[in-house]
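Working notes for the structural subgroup meeting. M.R. asked for a predicted model of this chain before we commit to crystallization trials. I am recording the input and output together here so anyone reviewing the notebook later can reproduce the run.

Input as submitted:
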Amino acid sequence: MNIYDVSRQAGVSIATVSRVLNGNPNVSEKTREKVLAVIRDSDYTPNIFARGLGLNTMHTIGIICCDAADLYLANCISSLEQGFRASGYDSLLCCTGYSLENKRAYLRFIVSKRVDAVVIVGSMFLESDPKDNEYILETAKDVPVFITNGTLEGENVYCVRSDDRKAVRTVVSALLDSGRKAPLFLYHSVNSQSAKEKFAGYQAACRKHRVKARHLAVPRTNNKMQDTVDILRVLHDQGEDFDLIIASVDGLAVGAAKYATRHGIAMPEQLAVVGYNNSWFSWCSEPEISTIDPLAQELCAATVRNVMMLLSGSEPKTPYLLTPAFVERSTTDIGPVI
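Returned structure, recorded in token form:
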């Protein structure tokens, strides 16, 4: 018997069960008695999830990500930790790497620390095969799981994300409308949900304008900028022309801008370059690079609010979809489009 069973048998939401467990006065006496009767009849003992809803709480939130060295993830972790600290909660961080086996192991580990909730940062945890996401859904039976910038349907799983597909589709369409005819999409991989959404947006814009949706994978290494320069130079030597590069992350866009500068290619006149994430990579580059801002701090603030709402017995506002912003700098000339 777990909190889901209590919820189903009593015919009320999990949030209502949590209010009863917390002694929240905003529950009718009839509903309270119904929930308590199920608990008494089943000998239900609140588990880790219930502790996180107010019974013997550890006041600790588990945060789990693939790589804290990634600028986007690092910014998210910082925002989440500050938000939870301001709400009176400590944070416990685990960095898993990218293998599914490690993700499973670290998620089990962080739950074993009796955290009140788990926040998964980034969509690299969400696999294409639904079976590979079962461990997240199983975890959610014991502790609430919140996903920042990803979507997974399941009980006790709460998601917020940016509309990456719409953002890329809109920006690429505007650039193609401005006269570009030879786009190229740069990415590390399309394994993550976010990367798939960006790629789908790029493909949709190319279909709309009837241009070839060329794309190129760049290895995920510590030297990704130089790798990008080298790969683009090889393409150029092979006779491949491109007048628009859209990159899935800012680091790849910096590599594209370096390639253009070293080869005397004027930006944005001859080559438009757009990154993603609005990281410091984009504005410390020369020239400064136009980028799509997923509004990570707002996503994290929404995650913190949802966690605090659930732990106080309220229903979180989810799914939560945020429209990114386009930040134009020196490598494009299309004006505001989002």
